[in-house]
Write a structure and sequence with these properties.
This protein has 576 residues and is of the alpha+beta class. The chain is built from 13 helices and 32 strands. The strands form eight sheets. The protein has a four-stranded antiparallel sheet, with no helix packed on it. The chain has a four-stranded antiparallel sheet with strand order 2-3-4-5, with no helix packed on it. Strand 7 and strand 8 form a beta hairpin. Helix 1 runs parallel beside helix 3, helix 3 packs antiparallel against helix 4 and helix 8 runs antiparallel to helix 10. The relative contact order is 0.07.
C-alpha cells in the first residue's frame, strides 16, 4: 500500500491523473465496512489521492463518491484513535473545500472562504499550501477570471510549487491562453471582466455613461477621473475637490452622467454639487443646497454623507438630494433628522433655476426620488413616512403616509423603492405592507386609482423596477431570511417567482429585455440572469476574488442598457 501511495502522490504531482485513478479504482471498489478500522489510515490517503486525481481529470462523480467514502471511514477511524490519523486531517479539509467543483453553486462561497481561512490562519505546510493556492486559482479560471487566477498562482512559492508542479504548470498555461482570447467575444457571454485604473487611492464611487463607453471614478483623496472603458485610457481628470476631502468636508460622492454624456454631476458633502463639461474639459456649474460639510450638521447619528444627483430622461432637470448612506443605531438618541436630509431640489439644468424644492418634517429622511420619463411628475418617498407625487408646477397630486421602512443601518441612503412605468402612466412604490401601484389616469387627484401587491407578514419590498410589458419586478425582504424576486403584471392575479434562493438584501434590480437580462445587486455581489428563465449567466462576487471572511463594501454601478457593470476593487475598477 505504501508503494501505491508514493506512486499516486508522484503521479498527481506530475499530472498523471488517469494513472492514479486506474491504480486505486480496483482497491476502492473492495472497501467494506469490516475493514474500515483495519486499513483506515492507509485507505484514507488512497481515497484522497484518488479523489484529487478525479477532480483534476474532470471526473466529478467519482470524486464526489470517493469524498463521501473518505468522510465515512475518517469518522470511524477518528472515533477509534484520532492520534494515528496524521495528514488525513489535512486531506479531509482539502476534500471538503475543493467540493465547490462538484457540489451545488450555493456551497461554493463557503468552500472558497474556508480555503482562504486555511491560508490566512492555518499556515499550512508547503505540500498543502500549494494545493490550496492552486484550487483557489482554478476557481477563478473556471469563472473566466484570469486576473485573479494569475495573481493567485503568482503567490505560490518555488518551494510550494515543487509539491504540485504538474497541475500548477498546466493551469498557468491555460490562464495564459485564455488571457490572449478576444475580450469582446468573452464579454458577449458574460464570461470575463477586465480591470481598469492605475491610481494609488481606493475608490469612493463609480458611474457609467448611458452607452458604457465612459467610466467616472471618484477616489478617496478627491481625485476625479474619467476613463474610456474600451481601453482604460484617461479622458480627463479633475483635482479641484481634493481640498474638500483633505479637510474632511467630503468623504463620499454621488455621480451621474447626463443622458447625452456631455456632463457629469458630482454630489459631495451635504448639498455640494459640481457639474463638469467633458466637451470643454472644465467645471461647468456649482450648486450649494445648502452646501454644508458634516461638521456643520446638528448632532445626529448619520454617517457616509454625500449628495445624491440624477438627471431626468432628456437631461432637462437635475435632482439634488443631500443624504447619508448609514447610521449608528447606538447613537440614535432621539434627535430630529437634520434638515438637509429631508430636503430635495429639482433644478432646471439649462438655467440653473430651482423650480421645485420641499422640506419634509423633522421625522422624515428622504429614501427615494424619481422623475417620470416624460418629465412631468416627480415622486419622493421618506423612510417609514410620506410618499408624495408632484407635478412640475409644484402641485402635489398624490400623497400617503405609508412609505417603507427597511430597518437596516446600511440602507438609509437613497434606495430603489420608487419607480415609474416606462410610459409614465403608473408609479410603483414600496409601502409598509405592500408594493403599491398608482394608476395616473388624469389630472384629478381624486380619480387616481391604486392597486396593492400584498407582502407576507414581516416582509417588505427592498427594491423594485418595471419592464416594458408593464410588469413590476420586486425583491421581497425579510430580516435574516433569503429574499425572493417576484414579477407581477398590473391588473392580473397571481405572481411569478423569478428567484427564490441565494439572495438576501437586494439593493438593485435592472432589466434589459433587449439583451434578455436581469441584473441583481445583492451587496457586494452582482448577478446576471436570463430574464426569461431566471438561469444564472454570470456572478461577480468580490468575496471570491479575495476569499475574505470579512464584510466587503465595493462600489457598484450597473448600466443595463449597455449590458455592463462597473465594480470597484481596492484601487481598480472591474468591468463585467
Amino acid at each position: 500500500m505504501e508503494h501505491m501511495l508514493n506512486k499516486s502522490r508522484e503521479w498527481n504531482r506530475t499530472g498523471r491523473y488517469a494513472d492514479t485513478i486506474a491504480l486505486w479504482e480496483p482497491v476502492l471498489q473492495d472497501i467494506s465496512s469490516r475493514n474500515h478500522l483495519q486499513h483506515g489510515t492507509v485507505i484514507l490517503p488512497g481515497l484522497y489521492f484518488y479523489a484529487e486525481a478525479a477532480v483534476l481529470h474532470g471526473e466529478f462523480a467519482k470524486a464526489a463518491q470517493a469524498a463521501r467514502q473518505f468522510e465515512e471511514i475518517y469518522r470511524v477511524a477518528a472515533e477509534a484513535n484520532r492520534d494515528e490519523l496524521g495528514e488525513a486531517v489535512h486531506m479531509k479539509n482539502m476534500l471538503q473545500d475543493m467540493a465547490f467543483l462538484f457540489s451545488r453553486e450555493r456551497e461554493k462561497t463557503d468552500c472558497l472562504r474556508s480555503f482562504g481561512g486555511s491560508l490566512e490562519y492555518g499556515k499550512p505546510q508547503p505540500v498543502w499550501a500549494s494545493r490550496i493556492k492552486y484550487f483557489v486559482a482554478l476557481a477563478d479560471y473556471l469563472d473566466y477570471n484570469v486576473v485573479d487566477a494569475e495573481r493567485k498562482l503568482s503567490e505560490i512559492s518555488e518551494e510550494e510549487a515543487a509539491f504540485f508542479a504538474g497541475p500548477i504548470d498546466e493551469l498557468r498555461q491555460k490562464i495564459k491562453e485564455r488571457s490572449r482570447l478576444d475580450y469582446k467575444s468573452l464579454r458577449a457571454r458574460h464570461q470575463a471582466f477586465i480591470e481598469l485604473g492605475d491610481y494609488e487611492e481606493w475608490i469612493v464611487q463609480v458611474s457609467l455613461n448611458p452607452d458604457a463607453s465612459l467610466l467616472a471614478v471618484m477616489y478617496r483623496d478627491g481625485e476625479l477621473k474619467v476613463l474610456r472603458t474600451a481601453d482604460g485610457e484617461e479622458v480627463c481628470s479633475f483635482s479641484d475637490s481634493k481640498p474638500l476631502f483633505q479637510e474632511e468636508k467630503a468623504g463620499e460622492a454621488g455621480l451621474a452622467f447626463s443622458p447625452d454624456s456631455r456632463y457629469l454631476a458630482v454630489g459631495l458633502g451635504v448639498g455640494i454639487v459640481k457639474v463638469y463639461d467633458f466637451a470643454k474639459k472644465e467645471l461647468h456649474a456649482e450648486y450649494a443646497y445648502p452646501g454644508l460639510d458634516w461638521e456643520q450638521l446638528e448632532r445626529n447619528a448619520y454617517y457616509e454623507e454625500y449628495t445624491y444627483v440624477a438627471f431626468s430622461e432628456t437631461g432637462r432637470y437635475l435632482l439634488i438630494v443631500p443624504t447619508a448612506g448609514s447610521y449608528d443605531p447606538q447613537g440614535d438618541d432621539g434627535y430630529g433628522i437634520p434638515e438637509p436630509y429631508r430636503t430635495f431640489y429639482c433644478v432646471e439644468f439649462a438655467s440653473g433655476e430651482v423650480i421645485l424644492q420641499h422640506t419634509f418634517s423633522e421625522k422624515c429622511k428622504i429614501a427615494a426620488v424619481q422623475m417620470s420619463a416624460d418629465e412631468q411628475l416627480l415622486a419622493v418617498g421618506c423612510f417609514g413616512k410620506d410618499i408624495t407625487l408632484w407635478d412640475m408646477t409644484g402641485r402635489a397630486v398624490y400623497g400617503e403616509d405609508d412609505f417603507v421602512w427597511l430597518g437596516l443601518p446600511s440602507r438609509v441612503g437613497m434606495t430603489q423603492t420608487v419607480a415609474f412605468s416606462r410610459d409614465s402612466k403608473k408609479l410603483a412604490y414600496a409601502s409598509r405592507q405592500a408594493v403599491r401601484i398608482i394608476h395616473l389616469t388624469g389630472d384629478d387627484a381624486d380619480a387616481i386609482l391604486t392597486e396593492d401587491i400584498p407582502m407576507p407578514e414581516n416582509s417588505v419590498c427592498g427594491a423594485l423596477c418595471w419592464d416594458s410589458q408593464d410588469r413590476v419586478i420586486f425583491a421581497q425582504y425579510r430580516h435574516n431570511s433569503p429574499s425572493r424576486l417576484l414579477r407581477y403584471r398590473s391588473g392580473s392575479e397571481g405572481m411569478e417567482v423569478l428567484l427564490d434562493q441565494g439572495l438576501y438584501d437586494v439593493e438593485g434590480i435592472y432589466v434589459s429585455e433587449q439583451h434578455e437580462e436581469m441584473w441583481i445587486y445583492d451587496s457586494p455581489v452582482v448577478q446576471v440572469r436570463n430574464y426569461t428563465t431566471g438561469a444564472l449567466v454570470q456572478k461577480y462576487d468580490p468575496y471570491q476574488w479575495s476569499y475574505s471572511s470579512y464584510m466587503i463594501s465595493n462600489q457598484v454601478f450597473i448600466q443595463p442598457r449597455a449590458s455592463m457593470a462597473a465594480i470597484s476593487h481596492k484601487t481598480k475598477i472591474r468591468l463585467g
